[in-house]
């Protein structure tokens, strides 16, 4: 079992990493270094993060990475142009997670940081179609909830409504 992690959702993601990826594969994790990429690295995986560049404008540079796997953990919803980015990813494997669109919650945006906005709130079928159109064949899907332990209508809905969606795919 893993050490205590800062976010409940990390446990599900780490289990998927163990299930589908191998420590001897080179991994490109989209986004800057973060607690989750560090946990994966601590488990012995060879992880390189992108450097914080605007991938919407510079997705062509992704082809310069020599990797077998790309991970995109809760970053796709931040892209204005996720199709071009996903279509131009290197490697033959992709493990992606997104927060699901919730009918009872508005899309997230941090008014202090425009980089921390969700431009896309995905349903499962929307992410599936995006990946398939971009040349990926979906091999596995998983959803999970994210209960908060708080009292109220929204916390109750979060207890029973899937909040996160993960997909493992391989290049067609």
Structural class: alpha/beta
Give the strand order of the largest sheet, numbering strands 1, 2, ... along the chain.
2-1-3-4-6-5
Distance between the terminal alpha carbons, to the nearest Å? Answer: 34 Å
Instruction: Provide the CATH superfamily.
Output: Vaccinia Virus protein VP39
Strand content: 15-25%
Outline type? globular
Top-tier CATH class: Alpha Beta
Mean pLDDT: 88
CATH topology, which one? Answer: Rossmann fold
Count of DSSP H/I helices: 6
Q: Quaternary arrangement of the chains shown?
A: single chain
How many domains is the backbone divided into? 1
Helix/strand order: HEHEHEHEHEHE
The tally of beta strands, per DSSP, is 6
Cα radius of gyration in angstroms: 16 Å
Second rung of CATH, namely the architecture: 3-Layer(aba) Sandwich
Question: Can you walk through the features of this model?
Answer:
- The N terminus is likely disordered.
- The longest helix has 13 residues.
- This protein has a single domain, classed as Vaccinia Virus protein VP39 (Rossmann fold).
- Strand 1, helix 2 and strand 2 form a beta-alpha-beta unit.
- The chain is of the alpha/beta class.
- It is globular, with a radius of gyration of 16 Å.
- It has a 6-stranded mixed sheet with strand order 2-1-3-4-6-5, sandwiched between helices.
Concise account of the structure shown:
The protein has six helices and six strands, in the order αβαβαβαβαβαβ. By secondary structure, it is α/β, with parallel strands linked by helices.
